Amino acid sequence: MYVIRGNATVANSLRGEVIDHTNKDKKKTIYKANREEDADVEWLDDFIVCINGIQLDVRNDSYDWRKNK
């Protein structure tokens, strides 16, 4: 999870990535949220994660606040 710091005209945002354990250079963004900077992350099993109440299967799901309003 990363906090992307905004400025006077842009709010902070939160971004989450997963890294492929077989290829550390392969990353996938699974979570983007605007106006957030705290992350409550709970892994439910090897593939399912809950980030700030949003449940995602890291193999094929993602959350982007611009698309998932």
From TrEMBL:
<dbReference type="Pfam" id="PF17428">
    <property type="entry name" value="DUF5412"/>
</dbReference>
<dbReference type="InterPro" id="IPR035406">
    <property type="entry name" value="DUF5412"/>
</dbReference>
<protein>
    <submittedName>
        <fullName>DUF5412 family protein</fullName>
    </submittedName>
</protein>
